[in-house]
Amino acid sequence: MMHDLFGHDDPGDHTAQSSGPAAHSAPDQDVPLAERMRPRSLDEIVGQEDLIGTGRPLRRLIEQDTLPSLLLWGPPGCGKTSLARVVARETAAHFLEYSAVQVGSKELKAVMAEAGKVRRAMGRRTIIFLDEIHRFNKAQQDALLPWVEKGDVTLIGATTENPSFEINAALLSRTRLFVLKLLDESDLAAILRRTLESERGLAGTAPAFTDDALAALAILSDGDARTALNLLEMAARAVEDPTTVVDREAVAAMVQERVLRYDRAGEEHYNLISALHKSVRNSDPDAALYYLARMLEAGEDPLFIARRLIRCASEDVGLADPQALPQTIAAKEAVQFVGMPEAGLALAQAAVYLALAPKSNALYKGYAEAAAEVRQGVNPPVPMQLRNAPTSLMKKLGFGEGYAYAHDAPEGVTPMECLPDRLRGRQYYEPTARGHEARYRERLEKIRAWRDRNAETADDEGEQT
Known about the structure:
The chain has 465 residues and is of the alpha/beta class.
Protein backbone atom coordinates (compact mmCIF):
# COMPACT_ATOMS: atom_id res chain seq x y z
CA MET A 1 0.00 0.00 0.00
CA MET A 2 1.11 3.58 -0.60
CA HIS A 3 0.80 4.41 3.09
CA ASP A 4 3.23 1.63 4.00
CA LEU A 5 5.72 2.51 1.28
CA PHE A 6 5.89 6.20 2.01
CA GLY A 7 5.18 6.42 5.70
CA HIS A 8 2.56 9.14 5.10
CA ASP A 9 -1.19 9.21 4.96
CA ASP A 10 -2.59 9.46 1.45
CA PRO A 11 -4.79 12.59 1.04
CA GLY A 12 -6.54 10.79 -1.80
CA ASP A 13 -7.70 8.09 0.61
CA HIS A 14 -9.06 10.68 3.04
CA THR A 15 -10.89 12.30 0.15
CA ALA A 16 -12.68 9.11 -0.68
CA GLN A 17 -13.74 8.63 2.91
CA SER A 18 -15.10 12.17 3.17
CA SER A 19 -17.57 11.61 0.35
CA GLY A 20 -19.83 9.43 2.51
CA PRO A 21 -22.36 10.45 5.16
CA ALA A 22 -19.66 11.79 7.46
CA ALA A 23 -19.09 14.59 4.99
CA HIS A 24 -22.39 16.13 6.11
CA SER A 25 -21.76 15.93 9.83
CA ALA A 26 -21.29 19.09 11.88
CA PRO A 27 -17.99 20.81 11.13
CA ASP A 28 -15.23 20.72 13.71
CA GLN A 29 -15.30 24.23 15.15
CA ASP A 30 -11.69 23.87 16.28
CA VAL A 31 -10.61 23.76 12.64
CA PRO A 32 -10.08 27.30 11.26
CA LEU A 33 -12.90 28.51 9.05
CA ALA A 34 -10.56 29.05 6.10
CA GLU A 35 -9.51 25.39 6.29
CA ARG A 36 -13.09 24.09 6.58
CA MET A 37 -14.13 26.11 3.52
CA ARG A 38 -11.38 24.92 1.20
CA PRO A 39 -12.84 23.97 -2.21
CA ARG A 40 -13.33 20.25 -2.80
CA SER A 41 -13.63 20.40 -6.58
CA LEU A 42 -12.63 22.61 -9.46
CA ASP A 43 -16.16 23.98 -9.66
CA GLU A 44 -15.95 25.19 -6.05
CA ILE A 45 -12.85 27.28 -6.71
CA VAL A 46 -13.78 30.94 -7.06
CA GLY A 47 -11.70 33.08 -9.40
CA GLN A 48 -8.77 32.02 -11.63
CA GLU A 49 -11.12 31.50 -14.59
CA ASP A 50 -8.23 32.05 -16.99
CA LEU A 51 -6.61 28.89 -15.66
CA ILE A 52 -9.41 26.58 -14.56
CA GLY A 53 -12.44 27.85 -16.42
CA THR A 54 -14.17 25.41 -18.78
CA GLY A 55 -11.73 24.35 -21.49
CA ARG A 56 -8.80 26.25 -20.01
CA PRO A 57 -5.36 24.55 -20.11
CA LEU A 58 -4.81 23.80 -16.42
CA ARG A 59 -8.34 22.46 -15.99
CA ARG A 60 -7.87 20.08 -18.93
CA LEU A 61 -4.60 18.78 -17.49
CA ILE A 62 -6.25 18.14 -14.11
CA GLU A 63 -9.38 16.52 -15.54
CA GLN A 64 -7.33 14.30 -17.85
CA ASP A 65 -4.95 13.46 -14.97
CA THR A 66 -1.95 14.34 -17.17
CA LEU A 67 -0.35 17.03 -15.05
CA PRO A 68 3.29 17.81 -15.81
CA SER A 69 5.54 19.26 -13.13
CA LEU A 70 4.38 22.81 -12.59
CA LEU A 71 4.76 25.95 -10.52
CA LEU A 72 1.84 27.93 -9.10
CA TRP A 73 2.80 31.56 -8.54
CA GLY A 74 0.43 33.99 -6.90
CA PRO A 75 -0.17 36.24 -3.88
CA PRO A 76 -1.24 34.85 -0.50
CA GLY A 77 -4.79 33.56 -0.28
CA CYS A 78 -5.41 33.31 -4.04
CA GLY A 79 -5.96 29.52 -4.03
CA LYS A 80 -2.61 27.82 -4.70
CA THR A 81 -2.89 25.26 -1.90
CA SER A 82 -6.62 24.78 -2.52
CA LEU A 83 -5.90 24.01 -6.17
CA ALA A 84 -3.27 21.46 -5.15
CA ARG A 85 -5.71 19.82 -2.72
CA VAL A 86 -8.28 19.54 -5.53
CA VAL A 87 -5.61 17.83 -7.63
CA ALA A 88 -5.17 15.35 -4.75
CA ARG A 89 -8.88 14.48 -5.01
CA GLU A 90 -8.98 14.33 -8.80
CA THR A 91 -5.80 12.39 -9.60
CA ALA A 92 -5.20 8.66 -9.61
CA ALA A 93 -1.59 9.33 -8.67
CA HIS A 94 -0.27 9.09 -5.15
CA PHE A 95 -0.30 12.61 -3.67
CA LEU A 96 2.04 13.92 -0.97
CA GLU A 97 2.02 17.42 0.50
CA TYR A 98 4.94 19.19 2.15
CA SER A 99 5.92 22.69 3.18
CA ALA A 100 9.44 23.82 2.30
CA VAL A 101 9.58 25.46 5.72
CA GLN A 102 9.24 22.12 7.50
CA VAL A 103 10.81 19.50 5.23
CA GLY A 104 14.44 19.06 4.26
CA SER A 105 15.92 17.95 0.96
CA LYS A 106 17.21 14.74 2.56
CA GLU A 107 13.67 13.60 3.41
CA LEU A 108 12.39 14.57 -0.03
CA LYS A 109 15.22 12.67 -1.71
CA ALA A 110 14.21 9.51 0.14
CA VAL A 111 10.55 10.01 -0.80
CA MET A 112 11.37 10.61 -4.45
CA ALA A 113 13.71 7.63 -4.63
CA GLU A 114 10.92 5.44 -3.26
CA ALA A 115 8.49 7.00 -5.74
CA GLY A 116 10.77 5.91 -8.58
CA LYS A 117 10.72 2.32 -7.35
CA VAL A 118 6.93 2.35 -7.04
CA ARG A 119 6.53 3.82 -10.52
CA ARG A 120 8.73 1.17 -12.08
CA ALA A 121 7.16 -1.68 -10.08
CA MET A 122 3.49 -0.68 -10.10
CA GLY A 123 3.21 2.00 -12.78
CA ARG A 124 1.66 4.50 -10.37
CA ARG A 125 2.83 8.10 -10.46
CA THR A 126 3.55 10.23 -7.38
CA ILE A 127 2.65 13.91 -7.18
CA ILE A 128 4.52 15.96 -4.61
CA PHE A 129 3.08 19.32 -3.65
CA LEU A 130 5.78 21.56 -2.18
CA ASP A 131 4.35 24.73 -0.67
CA GLU A 132 6.58 27.82 -0.35
CA ILE A 133 9.14 26.26 -2.67
CA HIS A 134 11.01 29.57 -2.75
CA ARG A 135 12.17 28.77 0.81
CA PHE A 136 14.44 26.09 -0.65
CA ASN A 137 17.94 27.31 -1.43
CA LYS A 138 19.74 26.59 -4.71
CA ALA A 139 21.23 23.30 -3.55
CA GLN A 140 17.89 22.07 -2.23
CA GLN A 141 16.16 22.99 -5.48
CA ASP A 142 18.89 21.25 -7.47
CA ALA A 143 18.20 18.09 -5.45
CA LEU A 144 14.71 17.92 -6.99
CA LEU A 145 15.95 17.94 -10.58
CA PRO A 146 16.96 14.29 -11.22
CA TRP A 147 13.59 12.85 -10.19
CA VAL A 148 11.62 15.54 -12.01
CA GLU A 149 13.68 14.95 -15.16
CA LYS A 150 13.17 11.17 -15.07
CA GLY A 151 9.45 11.58 -14.45
CA ASP A 152 9.59 9.57 -11.21
CA VAL A 153 7.63 12.35 -9.53
CA THR A 154 5.39 15.15 -10.70
CA LEU A 155 6.28 18.27 -8.76
CA ILE A 156 3.77 21.00 -7.95
CA GLY A 157 5.55 23.95 -6.38
CA ALA A 158 3.69 26.91 -4.91
CA THR A 159 5.28 30.30 -4.32
CA THR A 160 4.30 33.84 -3.48
CA GLU A 161 7.65 35.13 -4.78
CA ASN A 162 8.64 35.89 -8.35
CA PRO A 163 10.06 32.62 -9.79
CA SER A 164 12.46 34.63 -11.96
CA PHE A 165 14.35 35.56 -8.80
CA GLU A 166 13.62 32.70 -6.41
CA ILE A 167 13.54 29.51 -8.53
CA ASN A 168 16.59 28.04 -10.25
CA ALA A 169 16.64 28.42 -14.01
CA ALA A 170 17.14 24.65 -14.36
CA LEU A 171 14.02 23.90 -12.33
CA LEU A 172 12.03 26.61 -14.11
CA SER A 173 12.88 25.08 -17.48
CA ARG A 174 11.54 21.69 -16.37
CA THR A 175 8.21 22.95 -15.08
CA ARG A 176 5.21 24.78 -16.48
CA LEU A 177 4.44 28.07 -14.78
CA PHE A 178 0.85 29.07 -14.01
CA VAL A 179 0.24 32.53 -12.60
CA LEU A 180 -2.70 32.94 -10.21
CA LYS A 181 -4.19 36.39 -9.85
CA LEU A 182 -5.23 38.36 -6.82
CA LEU A 183 -8.91 37.66 -6.11
CA ASP A 184 -11.15 40.61 -6.87
CA GLU A 185 -13.77 41.96 -4.48
CA SER A 186 -16.67 40.18 -6.16
CA ASP A 187 -14.82 36.85 -5.85
CA LEU A 188 -14.21 37.43 -2.15
CA ALA A 189 -17.80 38.52 -1.53
CA ALA A 190 -19.00 35.31 -3.22
CA ILE A 191 -16.73 33.21 -0.97
CA LEU A 192 -18.04 35.00 2.12
CA ARG A 193 -21.66 34.57 1.05
CA ARG A 194 -21.11 30.85 0.42
CA THR A 195 -19.50 30.51 3.84
CA LEU A 196 -22.51 32.04 5.57
CA GLU A 197 -24.78 29.56 3.78
CA SER A 198 -22.61 26.44 4.08
CA GLU A 199 -22.86 23.79 6.81
CA ARG A 200 -19.07 23.57 6.66
CA GLY A 201 -18.98 27.28 7.34
CA LEU A 202 -21.21 29.47 9.51
CA ALA A 203 -24.73 28.42 8.49
CA GLY A 204 -27.01 28.60 11.51
CA THR A 205 -24.35 30.03 13.81
CA ALA A 206 -23.65 33.50 12.39
CA PRO A 207 -25.73 36.70 12.27
CA ALA A 208 -26.96 38.07 8.97
CA PHE A 209 -24.55 40.24 6.97
CA THR A 210 -25.71 42.85 4.46
CA ASP A 211 -24.21 42.89 0.98
CA ASP A 212 -22.48 46.15 1.87
CA ALA A 213 -20.93 44.50 4.93
CA LEU A 214 -19.57 41.62 2.82
CA ALA A 215 -18.27 44.11 0.26
CA ALA A 216 -16.49 45.99 3.07
CA LEU A 217 -14.89 42.77 4.31
CA ALA A 218 -13.82 41.95 0.75
CA ILE A 219 -12.12 45.35 0.38
CA LEU A 220 -10.35 44.96 3.71
CA SER A 221 -9.07 41.53 2.66
CA ASP A 222 -7.00 42.93 -0.22
CA GLY A 223 -7.52 39.93 -2.51
CA ASP A 224 -6.70 37.31 0.14
CA ALA A 225 -9.44 34.70 0.68
CA ARG A 226 -7.87 33.44 3.91
CA THR A 227 -7.87 36.96 5.33
CA ALA A 228 -11.48 37.45 4.23
CA LEU A 229 -12.65 34.32 6.01
CA ASN A 230 -10.69 35.18 9.14
CA LEU A 231 -12.26 38.64 9.21
CA LEU A 232 -15.73 37.16 8.67
CA GLU A 233 -15.21 34.72 11.52
CA MET A 234 -13.97 37.48 13.81
CA ALA A 235 -16.89 39.75 12.92
CA ALA A 236 -19.42 36.95 13.44
CA ARG A 237 -18.01 36.09 16.88
CA ALA A 238 -18.05 39.75 17.92
CA VAL A 239 -21.86 39.88 17.63
CA GLU A 240 -23.57 38.89 20.87
CA ASP A 241 -27.17 39.14 19.67
CA PRO A 242 -27.75 36.53 16.90
CA THR A 243 -30.67 38.59 15.55
CA THR A 244 -28.35 41.50 14.78
CA VAL A 245 -27.89 42.42 11.12
CA VAL A 246 -24.25 43.34 10.49
CA ASP A 247 -23.89 46.29 8.10
CA ARG A 248 -20.91 48.20 6.71
CA GLU A 249 -20.69 50.52 9.72
CA ALA A 250 -20.64 47.58 12.11
CA VAL A 251 -17.83 45.96 10.12
CA ALA A 252 -15.82 49.20 10.25
CA ALA A 253 -16.26 49.32 14.02
CA MET A 254 -15.25 45.68 14.50
CA VAL A 255 -12.26 45.74 12.22
CA GLN A 256 -10.31 48.68 13.56
CA GLU A 257 -7.09 47.92 11.78
CA ARG A 258 -6.21 45.79 8.79
CA VAL A 259 -2.93 44.14 7.91
CA LEU A 260 -1.63 45.59 4.66
CA ARG A 261 -0.32 43.11 2.11
CA TYR A 262 3.29 44.23 1.97
CA ASP A 263 6.67 42.58 2.28
CA ARG A 264 9.54 45.00 2.77
CA ALA A 265 11.99 42.43 1.41
CA GLY A 266 9.80 40.93 -1.31
CA GLU A 267 8.38 41.68 -4.73
CA GLU A 268 5.55 43.91 -3.52
CA HIS A 269 8.18 46.20 -2.02
CA TYR A 270 9.71 46.72 -5.45
CA ASN A 271 6.36 46.86 -7.24
CA LEU A 272 5.19 49.77 -5.10
CA ILE A 273 8.38 51.82 -5.23
CA SER A 274 8.38 51.29 -9.00
CA ALA A 275 4.76 52.48 -9.17
CA LEU A 276 5.62 55.58 -7.12
CA HIS A 277 8.60 56.45 -9.31
CA LYS A 278 6.74 55.93 -12.57
CA SER A 279 3.73 57.93 -11.37
CA VAL A 280 6.02 60.85 -10.54
CA ARG A 281 7.72 60.50 -13.93
CA ASN A 282 4.32 60.62 -15.63
CA SER A 283 3.39 63.82 -13.74
CA ASP A 284 0.56 62.16 -11.80
CA PRO A 285 0.56 63.59 -8.24
CA ASP A 286 -2.58 61.68 -7.25
CA ALA A 287 -1.06 58.29 -8.05
CA ALA A 288 2.21 59.38 -6.44
CA LEU A 289 0.43 60.21 -3.18
CA TYR A 290 -1.50 56.93 -3.27
CA TYR A 291 1.57 54.72 -3.69
CA LEU A 292 3.49 56.77 -1.14
CA ALA A 293 0.66 56.20 1.35
CA ARG A 294 0.57 52.47 0.53
CA MET A 295 4.22 52.16 1.46
CA LEU A 296 4.29 54.39 4.52
CA GLU A 297 1.10 52.98 6.03
CA ALA A 298 2.52 49.46 5.63
CA GLY A 299 5.65 50.41 7.58
CA GLU A 300 8.17 51.00 4.79
CA ASP A 301 11.43 52.65 5.82
CA PRO A 302 10.86 56.36 4.97
CA LEU A 303 14.55 56.81 4.18
CA PHE A 304 14.25 54.17 1.47
CA ILE A 305 11.50 56.26 -0.14
CA ALA A 306 13.52 59.46 0.32
CA ARG A 307 16.48 57.88 -1.49
CA ARG A 308 14.28 56.95 -4.45
CA LEU A 309 12.81 60.47 -4.61
CA ILE A 310 16.33 61.93 -4.63
CA ARG A 311 17.21 59.63 -7.51
CA CYS A 312 14.01 60.64 -9.29
CA ALA A 313 14.87 64.33 -8.90
CA SER A 314 18.04 63.89 -10.95
CA GLU A 315 16.89 61.11 -13.28
CA ASP A 316 13.49 62.44 -14.34
CA VAL A 317 13.52 66.18 -13.57
CA GLY A 318 17.16 67.15 -13.66
CA LEU A 319 17.89 70.71 -14.74
CA ALA A 320 14.37 71.21 -16.06
CA ASP A 321 13.79 72.31 -12.45
CA PRO A 322 17.00 72.70 -10.43
CA GLN A 323 14.96 73.01 -7.22
CA ALA A 324 13.77 69.41 -7.45
CA LEU A 325 16.93 68.00 -5.90
CA PRO A 326 16.96 70.44 -2.94
CA GLN A 327 13.29 69.60 -2.30
CA THR A 328 14.06 65.89 -1.99
CA ILE A 329 17.19 66.47 0.10
CA ALA A 330 15.08 68.59 2.45
CA ALA A 331 12.52 65.77 2.70
CA LYS A 332 15.29 63.32 3.59
CA GLU A 333 16.55 65.67 6.31
CA ALA A 334 13.00 66.07 7.64
CA VAL A 335 12.70 62.28 7.95
CA GLN A 336 15.95 62.14 9.89
CA PHE A 337 15.20 65.17 12.09
CA VAL A 338 11.47 64.86 12.75
CA GLY A 339 10.83 61.16 12.20
CA MET A 340 7.56 59.43 11.38
CA PRO A 341 4.67 59.93 11.16
CA GLU A 342 5.19 63.71 10.91
CA ALA A 343 7.82 63.44 8.19
CA GLY A 344 5.32 61.66 5.93
CA LEU A 345 4.05 65.07 4.85
CA ALA A 346 7.56 66.14 3.86
CA LEU A 347 7.83 63.08 1.65
CA ALA A 348 4.38 63.83 0.23
CA GLN A 349 5.47 67.41 -0.53
CA ALA A 350 8.58 66.18 -2.33
CA ALA A 351 6.64 63.56 -4.31
CA VAL A 352 4.01 66.06 -5.48
CA TYR A 353 6.70 68.66 -6.31
CA LEU A 354 8.50 66.13 -8.48
CA ALA A 355 5.27 65.02 -10.14
CA LEU A 356 4.36 68.59 -11.11
CA ALA A 357 7.88 69.65 -12.13
CA PRO A 358 8.83 69.81 -15.83
CA LYS A 359 10.59 66.59 -16.81
CA SER A 360 13.92 65.93 -18.44
CA ASN A 361 16.07 62.82 -18.56
CA ALA A 362 18.89 64.62 -20.38
CA LEU A 363 21.23 64.33 -17.41
CA TYR A 364 20.39 60.63 -17.02
CA LYS A 365 21.01 59.90 -20.69
CA GLY A 366 24.15 62.02 -20.87
CA TYR A 367 25.77 60.36 -17.89
CA ALA A 368 24.69 56.89 -19.08
CA GLU A 369 26.37 57.47 -22.47
CA ALA A 370 29.57 58.74 -20.89
CA ALA A 371 29.64 55.86 -18.40
CA ALA A 372 29.03 53.33 -21.19
CA GLU A 373 32.09 54.57 -23.08
CA VAL A 374 34.20 54.37 -19.94
CA ARG A 375 33.06 50.80 -19.29
CA GLN A 376 33.89 49.88 -22.89
CA GLY A 377 37.48 50.95 -22.34
CA VAL A 378 37.35 54.35 -24.02
CA ASN A 379 39.73 55.92 -21.50
CA PRO A 380 42.41 57.93 -23.40
CA PRO A 381 44.86 60.06 -21.42
CA VAL A 382 43.70 63.41 -20.04
CA PRO A 383 44.76 66.18 -22.49
CA MET A 384 48.00 67.89 -21.47
CA GLN A 385 46.36 71.32 -21.20
CA LEU A 386 44.04 70.04 -18.45
CA ARG A 387 46.66 68.31 -16.36
CA ASN A 388 47.90 69.80 -13.12
CA ALA A 389 51.59 70.75 -13.00
CA PRO A 390 52.65 71.10 -9.36
CA THR A 391 56.36 70.37 -10.06
CA SER A 392 58.90 71.85 -12.43
CA LEU A 393 59.51 68.45 -13.99
CA MET A 394 55.86 68.14 -14.90
CA LYS A 395 55.90 71.61 -16.43
CA LYS A 396 58.95 70.65 -18.52
CA LEU A 397 57.05 67.59 -19.72
CA GLY A 398 54.24 69.84 -20.98
CA PHE A 399 51.72 69.32 -18.20
CA GLY A 400 49.29 72.25 -18.25
CA GLU A 401 50.71 73.71 -21.45
CA GLY A 402 48.03 75.45 -23.51
CA TYR A 403 45.59 75.80 -20.62
CA ALA A 404 43.26 78.79 -21.14
CA TYR A 405 41.75 80.39 -18.01
CA ALA A 406 38.09 80.99 -18.87
CA HIS A 407 37.67 83.96 -16.52
CA ASP A 408 40.28 85.91 -18.49
CA ALA A 409 38.25 85.60 -21.70
CA PRO A 410 35.72 88.38 -22.46
CA GLU A 411 32.95 85.81 -23.05
CA GLY A 412 33.96 83.70 -20.04
CA VAL A 413 34.55 80.82 -22.47
CA THR A 414 37.63 79.74 -24.44
CA PRO A 415 37.92 77.49 -27.51
CA MET A 416 40.20 75.12 -25.55
CA GLU A 417 39.32 71.45 -26.19
CA CYS A 418 38.62 69.61 -22.92
CA LEU A 419 37.83 66.13 -24.22
CA PRO A 420 40.65 63.81 -25.35
CA ASP A 421 41.33 63.97 -29.09
CA ARG A 422 39.71 60.57 -29.59
CA LEU A 423 36.42 61.91 -28.21
CA ARG A 424 36.57 65.35 -29.76
CA GLY A 425 33.15 66.58 -30.75
CA ARG A 426 31.22 64.07 -28.58
CA GLN A 427 28.07 65.57 -27.06
CA TYR A 428 26.65 63.71 -24.06
CA TYR A 429 24.33 66.31 -22.58
CA GLU A 430 21.43 67.31 -24.81
CA PRO A 431 19.00 69.46 -22.78
CA THR A 432 15.32 69.46 -23.58
CA ALA A 433 13.13 72.50 -24.26
CA ARG A 434 11.19 72.02 -21.00
CA GLY A 435 11.34 74.18 -17.90
CA HIS A 436 14.64 75.79 -16.93
CA GLU A 437 16.42 73.46 -19.30
CA ALA A 438 15.09 75.43 -22.25
CA ARG A 439 17.36 78.33 -21.19
CA TYR A 440 20.30 75.97 -20.67
CA ARG A 441 19.69 74.51 -24.11
CA GLU A 442 19.78 77.92 -25.74
CA ARG A 443 22.98 78.85 -23.89
CA LEU A 444 24.66 75.52 -24.66
CA GLU A 445 23.87 75.88 -28.36
CA LYS A 446 25.51 79.32 -28.37
CA ILE A 447 28.56 78.06 -26.47
CA ARG A 448 29.02 75.10 -28.81
CA ALA A 449 28.62 77.28 -31.91
CA TRP A 450 31.09 79.87 -30.57
CA ARG A 451 33.62 77.15 -29.70
CA ASP A 452 33.28 75.56 -33.14
CA ARG A 453 33.92 78.91 -34.88
CA ASN A 454 36.87 79.85 -32.71
CA ALA A 455 38.33 76.36 -32.75
CA GLU A 456 38.38 76.52 -36.59
CA THR A 457 40.10 79.92 -36.45
CA ALA A 458 42.69 78.59 -34.01
CA ASP A 459 43.33 75.58 -36.23
CA ASP A 460 43.78 77.82 -39.29
CA GLU A 461 46.24 80.04 -37.43
CA GLY A 462 48.15 76.99 -36.28
CA GLU A 463 48.42 75.69 -39.85
CA GLN A 464 49.67 79.11 -41.11
CA THR A 465 52.25 79.21 -38.36
